[in-house]
Amino acid sequence: MLVPSLKAIVIGAISYSDSSKVVKVLTQEYGILPVFVRVSKKTSVLWHPLATLELSEVKRKNSNSLATFKGVERASSAIETLRDPKRTALAFFLSEFLEKSVPEGTHIDGVFDVIEEAVCLLENDKHVANLHFYAIAKVILALGLMPENTGDSSHSLHLETGEWHDVKPLLSKTSYLLKYDLAELMIKIPGMDFVNIRNLRLNQNERKELLLAMVMFIQLHHAGLREIKSYEVLETIFD
Q1: Same domain for 98 and 54?
Q2: Residue 160 in contact with residue 220, Cβ under 8 Å?
Q3: 157/150 Cα distance (integer angstroms)
Q4: 165 strand-pairing partners
Q5: Of the candidates 76, 67, 102, 65, which has an alpha carbon nearest to the alpha carbon of residue 7?
Q6: pLDDT mean over 131-154
Q7: How many whole angstroms separate alpha carbon 35 and alpha carbon 30?
Q8: pTM over 0.90
């Protein structure tokens, strides 16, 4: 594989040595791609969560090897995202969510467009408090997981199967039943304008349950349940 230019969104990184690291990036063409990055004072500031970058002369020997590149530059600004603690927390949360929920090799047509839109809103919109609900619900839709609404408010949505059941809802690490009202909202969000997302009327418990349910929904179908450590920081900042 040799690509002259590739747009990539940073979703995770681990240290490889004192002078290098492996960065996971989300791409339109190849899904999630691990990239070998040499650390320098000039470029280290570029590789933050949800940074949108343009990589030049990208090479990868095979599907199991790390990709390399010759040059890197920003594809879009991140001034507000890095300056505002709320936006920074959202960037960390969404990038960790992607890294731990959508593994390499997953068919993710449309996911890049969703996250690219989220990055644009994160940097430019005045109100970003509910951006994570908007982005994750649209990822669910892009992955082809979104269930149809049965229209029966007595039912609960089973997150592992995507089916509705006439049983009492209970959401936990071992029970995956989401109550109808929140499941209905999850289904509606992708069709809503972001302007309307700002006005979601949810109490603190409902916000937490809906967000965790959406993350669990994707993880149960793809990566398995994994804790998103940046969630607590996100919750604290927005509370």
Answers
A1: no
A2: yes
A3: 10
A4: 156
A5: 76
A6: 93
A7: 12
A8: yes
Print the domain residue range for 195.
Answer: 79-238
Could you please report the per-residue DSSP string of the chain? -EEEEEEEEEEEEEEEETTEEEEEEEETTTEEEEEEEE--TTTGGG-STT-EEEEEEEE-SSTTSPBB-SEEEESS--HHHHH-HHHHHHHHHHHHHHHHHS-TT---TTHHHHHHHHHHHHHH-S--TTHHHHHHHHHHHHTT-PPPP---TT-EEETTTTEEESS--EESSS-EEE-HHHHHHHHHGGGS-HHHHTT----HHHHHHHHHHHHHHHHHHTT-----TTHHHHHHHH-
Question: Which pair of tokens denotes residue 236?
Answer: 């604290």
Domain identity same for 65 and 160? no
Verify that 98 and 166 share a domain, yes or no. Answer: yes
How far apart, in Å, do the first and last CA atoms of the chain sit?
46
Give the pLDDT confidence score for residue 188 in this predicted structure: 96
Domain count, the chain: 2
Residue found by looking up tokens 């604290």 in the block:
236
Provide the mean pLDDT of the chain: 93
CB 156 within 8 A of CB 164: yes
